[in-house]
Each structure stands twice: as structure tokens, then as C-alpha cells.
Amino acid sequence: MDPTPVRESLRLVLLDDHALLRESLARLLAAEPDFELVAACTTQAEAMRHLKSAEADVILVDCRMAREFIPAARKARCTGKVLVLARDLNAGDSAQLLKCGASGIFLDSDSSARLVQAIRLVANGEAWVDQKVLRFLAERYPPGDSPWRCSLTGRQQEVLSCVLDGSSSRAIASHLGVTESAVKATLQQLFGKAGVRTRSQLVRVALEAPRVSPHSSPHSSPHPAPLPAEPGYQAKSA
Hints:
There is one protein chain. By secondary structure, the protein is an alpha/beta fold. It has helices at residues 19-30, 44-53, 63-75, 91-100, 112-123, 131-140, 147-150, 154-164, 169-176, 180-194, 199-208, and strands at 10-15, 35-41, 58-62, 81-86, 104-107, 128-129.
């Protein structure tokens, strides 16, 4: 029997109820030679029908629809990474989307070239959180000294700081002068300590981890509460 052929293109599903934006994005995505647009959908029900019949690597979802779509997709065990498209988001909404399982948040004030880059990174297991969104989160959840952050080694702190800056594994390796495999190994350690399985969840936990206070119990756990696992996530995608 012949081996199953390796699929080289990235399969995408687009969910946006604005016709003009949806059609414009569909043309942009179709122009990329390594992108295969499976469907451009108007409703969540339409998107779910396509996802049940065909796998998608990345699902691009308008932020107004993402809050309902992400839990529904996870419940249906859809394995595609979710990239949320937004005009603007406050820190609370951003944190909630990351907590629900979004792999990235892309602001549509950015360029089309950056969107293509974000899709490829998210498909490869990286997180994409716009720098403006990261600033919002950092202002609401200042890094400070949390029991969890204090439990990290020096190298883990360095890698985490780079992740919070939005750097890819390759960029982190170059910055720290180590191999990409070493960075991925450190990321796996961070995932384990944070009780998460994706970079986007790691960002959320790092920013929301409880701070040290005079009333903190010395016996309290330094680890954040684990988040639900995301179906289809592979550890090698760190």
C-alpha cells in the first residue's frame, strides 16, 4: 500500500459575517500558493459543517463570533488552531479569548503580509498575540513577582520573556545563542509548570498568575490552575 501523501498546503476556514471583509480576506488567502481556503463562512453552523467534513489547520474567526465559536469547536473536537481577527480588544476580552483556547489575536489594523505570517506561525504551533494586545494585558496584569514566576529557572525566565515579546522559537534561539531544540525543550518545561499546552495559554497564565502579597499563605501552590487541554495539540509544536 502506498504511504499517505504529505499535505504541503495549509488548510484554512474563514468565519466572518461581514460580506465585504470576508470576500476581501478570501481573495487574500487564495492568492497564497501554500494556502488552501476550505470555506469562507457566514455563520458558526456553516463553519462547523465544513470542519466536520474536512480538517483545517487554522480557523480565522471574527472576534465577535469567537467567544461562542471557540468553545463549540473544542466541544466538537475540532483540531484546527484558532486565530481571532479583531479591530480592537480590551485586556479582559483578550485574556478571555486566550483562556478559551485561541492560538492568536490579530488586529486588522496590521498589514496583510503580517496576517499571512501570523497564519503560518499559528499553524506551526506558535502563538500570535499583537503587541498592542500584549501591552493591554501587561498593563492590566503587570508581571510583578508571582510564586509561579519565582519558581522558574533563569533560562525559563529568559524564554518566557521572549514569548511575551511575541518571538518565535527560532528568534528566541538566535537571541539566546542556543539551538531551537533547546528553546522547545524549555517551552515544554514552562508548559508543564504552568499546566497549559499552548503558547497562547502560557501568555495568559504568565500575565494572570497571582502576585505575592503580605497575606499570601507560604504553603499555597506556586502553580496556576491547569487549563483544559486543546484537542489535537502536539507537544512537538512548541
